[in-house]
């Protein structure tokens, strides 16, 4: 095992040498909510350049993250599946929102000035004819329309309505625009990074409290409840993702809600959170040994820590997601393990808990400054007994800057 | 205004006469988590009857609520858009899950015994060929496959992968199965009702505390944070939806997160929550006048209360969603108002914050016992100054049983 060269709060010389800038240690001042209009103007200008390169006349947006990306409209109302929301982003000009009546007042508070709405719900014509009319008015009789259709995308409108829309728009053609939205969203602005960093700071502070929260005998569900409350108290807006596991020596199910089983000496406890501030996620976990860690668990943990270091060492503009994967995988395999069932060793992060790219052997996305990424090495000590470790960083010109406060080098023990 | 005939905790004679059974007042004992296998067997049997009637050989499920409905798999991991999850529900036989590797351990803990998984993420073939092979193996060379394509549904897989799947399944045809899933999910089992009732009890208790939490001068965001923490402390698993507004004399934006504006005397404060216990939502709101209510706000509130009574009076098996709408609308219009911009006056409720049906003039869904519904009359006192009121109930043979503890008859004042 290599020595930890990643500092918590101070910039060590060897950390700078390794290019791993320290995590922010400023006092917890929440970044301003929302964005200046210039942020949306920049996003639009970037989108329009990419659309022109791709030969698209417009993007048709139906999903929460993309609608918010271009408009700034933030709402939990997307929980309701009843009504579709549409945004038309033309290759030239400003976006037009076509939204249900309930959405008019909040969208009118954003920078969007062309808003059309229909009385909704109205399943017999749920915005479809209004959208088609709007598209004809703005784009004319023929247009190449981009709709995200590729990996990690969905269409948030009923399939039958999408078919009806296409039927109403003879002369229009629909093309996959995944690369456009992916290119835009993968690289974060400083204002976005600040929000993610803030969320990471809140979660880092709460993880530091866990040795005082998680004690043997307590049901896991109560520990998770206490963690969630602490995250909110410290300024998180929401905790849409708080999962984990506790099992003797390691765990294999990393995505389930906590059960009533009491935490037991010998367990490895893992808590993973996607906490949100102003619509931006952190996504990292921490592991704890309940009582003295056994050798296997300690070695598994140390391997994951070393794998993370290996990825931080090579995370530079020009490296790829695949490079990060292979750096981590090599450490895991060299230490005698197989990678866990997560299927990747980290991913993008931002308005969603997980975003493109994926650190897998086949994802050759080239890393550029402004990308916010997780490193999430996992391994199986034996079948059904695994461990996963995660950190968040933003890539800078000279290397990674940690956003999560680095986990301890050795598996922390809760006594 | 009519007198309130709806009791809080006791069964009044006139309430029974009106068929409005009292809200549960039992002590707060959380229902057992999960469901017995018999619940899933019943759901499958009902689904298979409906599929046979509709001439479908199988349902292809991709969405969280439907996957959970048939399997019991509950996870916040659906937050990650990277990986699709598939469930094949055949018209004869047991369901087969086709899930990413990370999903194998938790799905293996459900009653599903046929689980296939692929190493994911793998965007070049994200489960599509495995799903196609599985469908051919189970359904043979030709089959009529039901996919929800209608109102309130989406397909949770990339469009391009759906097209590829259809290309791989020559001989298969794909048909809208919205009516099948809608018929199933609209009518709740007693075990489901118990979970919703429990969530409603928790939220009712917390709403009772709001006069002590919401005081003039406090920023709205801090009030909402305190409410969220209180909901968690009292046993809620999550608060995915907590929205509202506070504005002088009434509000018009009912779906936005709270801002930093301090609560001010003369405001009407509305807090609306979709709180969750074991995967089941409540969805109701409460209004409060900060300081003495002005006449217009008090009259608007009383009208909404009376509109709710009008709907409770006629909520019987055999009535329709449209009947509920018209009963509420009549009271609103007779009192000199227009309905608000919500577009409907209530809806279904369960595994999602909102479900079919919608109380609109054109939704003629026939109400049957076991449906859990909201009544959500809204009105505008003047443009931009509105109010919305909401209650939750389950329909019984003899009428509605309130699940939310009824709001006070008069707009409560916080002094």
Number of DSSP E strands of chain A: 19
* CATH H-tier superfamily of the largest domain in chain A: Creatinase/methionine aminopeptidase superfamily
CATH topology of the largest domain in chain A: Creatine Amidinohydrolase
Unreliable stretches covering 5 or more consecutive residues of chain A: 1-26
At CATH's second level, what is the architecture of the largest domain in chain A? Answer: Alpha-Beta Complex
Residue-averaged pLDDT of chain A, rounded?
A: 93
**Largest sheet, strands/sense/barrel of chain A:** 6 strands, mixed
The percent range for helix content of chain A is 25-40%
Taken from the alpha-carbon principal axes, the silhouette of chain A is elongated
Instruction: Classify the secondary structure makeup of chain A into a structural class.
Output: alpha+beta
Beta-strand content of chain A: 15-25%
Q: What's the CATH first level of the largest domain in chain A?
A: Alpha Beta
Helical run tally of chain A = 11
Radius of gyration of chain A (Å) = 23 Å
How widely separated are the two ends of chain A? 25 Å
What does this protein structure show overall?
The first copy, chain A, has 415 residues and is of the alpha+beta class. Chain A has two domains: 13-23 and 187-414, Creatinase/methionine aminopeptidase superfamily (Creatine Amidinohydrolase, Alpha-Beta Complex); 37-185, 3-Layer(aba) Sandwich (Creatine Amidinohydrolase, Chain A, domain 1), CATH 3.40.350. Helices cover 33% and strands 22% of the residues of chain A. Chain A is built from eleven helices and 19 strands. Chain A has helices at residues 13-17, 37-54, 64-71, 104-108, 128-139, 159-168, 178-186, 190-213, 220-233, 295-314, 321-334; strands at 58-61, 86-90, 96-100, 114-118, 143-147, 172-176, 238-248, 267-277, 280-281, 284-290, 338-339, 347-348, 355-358, 372-375, 378-382, 385-388, 391-396, 399-402, 413-414. In chain A, the strands form five sheets. Chain A has a six-stranded mixed sheet with strand order 4-3-2-1-5-6. In chain A, strands 7, 8, 9, 10 and 19 form a five-stranded mixed sheet that branches. In chain A, strand 12 (347-348) and strand 13 form a beta hairpin. The first copy, chain A, is elongated.
